[in-house]
Amino acid sequence: MSPLLVMFIIFIALLLSGLPIFAAIGLSSVSYILLAGDVPLMLIPQRIFVTTDSFSLLAIPLFMLAGELMNSGGITRSILNFCSKLVGHVRGGLAHVSILTCMIFAGMCGSCTAAAASVGSMMLPALREDGYDDDFSGSIIASAAVLGPVIPPSIIMVIYASISGDSVAKLFLGGIAPGFIIGILLMVMASLISVRRGYQAKNEKMASLPEIFRALFRSLPALFLPVFIIVGIMSGLFTATEAGAVAVGYAAILGFVTKELKLQNLRGVLGKAAKASTNVLLLMGTGATLGWILTKNQVPQTMTRVLLGITRQPALLLIIIIAFVLFLGCFLTDATIVPILAPLLLPVITSIGYDPIAFGVILCTISVVGNLTPPVGGLLFVVSGVGGIPVGKIARTVLPFLGVIVFVLVLCALCPGIVSFIPNHLMG
Description:
This protein is mainly alpha-helical and about 425 residues long. It has helices at about 5-15, 20-35, 45-50, 60-70, 75-85, 95-110, 110-130, 135-145, 155-165, 170-175, 175-195, 210-235, 240-255, 265-295, 300-310, 315-330, 335-350, 355-370, 380-385, 390-395, 400-415, 415-425. The termini are far apart.
């Protein structure tokens, strides 16, 4: 039995055992090195160090910290109030408020987990109190949280850019159109289910324009941040990494000015951000080791030949990739899938002349969608933990929303201009 096959068997066994994914990748890589005998064990710490020793990757802990500061600083509440005034009068109003809040919060944290935990902790009790079923409430928060890494800024796009060498700003801009289309269609699906289940509007009538403007004014400082980040990166005022530092400073100042953020809370905020960042960076480091082993065994070249042997039609090839990544998402997280698959698939994409920015956005988004599919289903477990809802109930009800997101990504694969229109017109 070849060392490569043994490595895959051990990886799957460790994954099914419940071991953390970075540990499963690392230990299975160790098994290959020991069996192959021609690679030193020193390779693993070297690859982890080389992969994570990057200025651009500083954006990951910075945006993680910014998201935690916003959550602790009460910024989410002001956004929630504005969304409630805006769409609370629509049938199934609280569901729409949840989706819209996730869309706006996505423009500040760049993380699906942060969006699910932050918005879920506030909206799930409110949805339950208003008579919404737990399975529907949980599926709404989990599916809307996918928008976290799609609407800029996006941590997973920073990871992809560090591997592919593509422009972070173009990837950020490329996520805007798909993110808004997904958000709108999620609201349409929520409306259909709300009508079928008999959910009512949160507010009896639409808020008056003065009320909406007052709520908008109170949430304006928070809404300004994503615009400032995008404009700053595009204009060259700061890099994507420096944008993370700007977001941290902005969120901290805003939290202290509103007196929602307390000095005694900083230790917990820093601890949460450090833990989340370490997990992502370890996944990247061990994933790079696995990627080196696959490259050594010419797996990328083999995959290129196999995929191009099936079809050379770009759209059909992208649909096959979407289906494959969606399957992988049942077992791996987005922070694992992108570092492993990006080096394998980029040669294929280059050979067929497909838009690399459109591909990057599609790959990052479909990798995040894997957080909705069990058994790994990270978002399902986050929402389950926040709301005390059984994972099985959420997993069943999330399927229509999952279908909506996949539909949009297939549409983007068929019409890559949906993704590339904004970056091409704003950045050339």
